[in-house]
Design goal:
Elements (H helix, E strand, L loop, with lengths): L2 E8 L4 H8 L8 H4 L3 H9 L4 E6 L14 E4 L3 E4 L12 E2 L2 H13 L5 E3 L3 E2 L1 H10 L9 E7 L9 H16 L6 E7 L16 H13 L9 H8 L6 H9 L5 E12 L2 E10 L3
Parallel strand pairs: 1-9, 2-8, 2-9, 3-6, 4-7
Antiparallel strand pairs: 1-11, 3-8, 4-5, 10-11
Helix pairs in contact: 4-6, 6-9
C-alpha cells in the first residue's frame, strides 16, 4: 500500500531562487535559512520518497483574477517551469504521474471536493523552489510530483478548516492506493508577510511560532480564525499558511517533529521550515 511518510513545509519567496543562482547559500544573511534544510536532506537520504504532492499557490501563471479556482490539481506527466517576471532561473520540467493524479482527483470528487482538473499546468517558484531546496545537487527533481494549487490570491478564499480537511482527504486517498509508494507532502508559502499597503513588511513572530508549534499536536488551532482574522495576524500574503495546514492534514493525527527552523527575515518574509513524520514510522 502507498504511505505518506512525512511533511515538509517551507517559505517560497523568489529571493531564494536568486540566492541559489548567485551562490549565496553560505552567506551571513542566508545561511540560517539554508542550514535548516541540512537535517531534512539527511532524512530524505534515509527516507527517499517516490512521489511528492505539493500544496502551493499560483502567482498568476495559470490563473488570474478573472478565472480563479479554489482548488486545482495537476493531471499531467510533466510540469514545465515558468515564472512571472522575477528573473529567477527556470528549472527543467518536473516529472508527473497522470495515472496517480487521476486517482487523487477522482477520490477528492468522491469526497465532495469540487476541484479544477489541469491536464496542462505550468509551475512557478512556489512549486519549484521548495523542491530545489530538498534536492539542490540534482539537475532535475529526482521524484515524481503532483501539484495541488490552493487559491490564496483572490477572496473568497477557502477557510483554514476546509484546507485542513482537504489535506486529510488527500492523505486518506493516498494511503488507500494499492501501490508500493512512499509519498512526501510539501506545503509552501508564508509565514507572516505583507508586500504592500500600510502594513508592508509585517512579520508576526509570536503568531508564526504558535502556528508552527500547533501543527505538531493540534493542527485545528488555526481553524478557530476566519481568513480575515488570519490576514490581520500574518499579513495579506501570510495567508499562505493555508498550504501548511493542508500538508499537515495529510499526516496522521500523531506525528513527531524531526526538525524545525524559524529565521527572520528572508527578503521581507518570516522564513519557516518544518519536517514532521508519523509518530510510529
Amino acid at each position: 500500500m502507498a504511505k505518506v511518510i512525512g511533511m515538509v513545509t517551507t517559505s517560497h519567496v523568489p529571493s531564494i531562487g536568486n540566492a541559489f543562482a548567485k551562490g549565496l547559500e553560505n552567506s551571513e544573511y542566508w545561511s540560517p535559512f539554508f542550514d535548516g534544510f541540512k537535517p531534512i536532506r539527511e532524512w530524505l537520504a534515509a527516507n527517499t520518497p517516490d512521489l511528492v504532492v505539493v500544496f502551493y499557490n499560483d502567482h498568476g501563471l495559470n490563473f488570474f483574477l478573472d478565472t480563479m479556482p479554489t482548488f486545482s490539481v495537476g493531471a499531467a506527466n510533466e510540469y514545465v517551469n515558468e515564472d512571472e517576471g522575477w528573473g529567477i532561473p527556470t528549472l527543467p520540467a518536473f516529472k508527473g504521474n497522470a495515472e496517480l493524479s487521476w486517482k487523487l482527483i477522482e477520490g477528492l470528487i468522491e469526497h465532495d471536493f469540487d476541484i479544477a482538473t489541469c491536464q496542462k499546468m505550468k509551475v512557478d517558484h512556489a512549486f519549484t523552489l521548495p523542491l530545489k531546496l530538498l534536492w539542490p545537487q540534482e539537475a532535475q527533481c529526482p521524484v515524481q510530483t503532483i501539484p495541488i494549487c490552493i487559491n490564496t490570491v483572490q477572496f473568497p478564499l477557502p477557510s483554514a478548516r476546509r484546507c485542513l480537511n482537504l489535506g486529510r482527504t488527500v492523505g486518506e486517498i493516498i494511503n488507500g492506493w494499492d501501490e508500493n509508494l512512499k509519498v512526501l507532502v510539501v506545503g509552501t508559502g508564508g509565514l507572516s508577510h505583507q508586500l504592500d499597503g500600510e502594513r508592508a513588511g509585517l512579520i508576526n513572530k509570536e503568531f508564526d511560532l504558535k502556528f508552527m508549534d500547533s501543527l505538531i499536536a493540534t493542527p485545528e488551532w488555526a481553524t478557530q480564525y476566519t481568513n480575515m482574522e488570519l490576514v490581520e495576524a500574518v499579513g495579506t500574503q501570510g495567508i499562505e499558511l493555508l498550504m501548511w495546514l493542508a500538508a499537515r492534514g495529510a499526516l496522521p493525527p500523531k506525528v513527531k517533529k524531526v526538525s524545525s527552523t524559524y529565521h527572520i527575515p528572508i527578503s521581507n518574509t518570516a522564513g519557516g521550515i518544518m519536517l514532521l513524520q508519523p509518530e510510529h514510522q
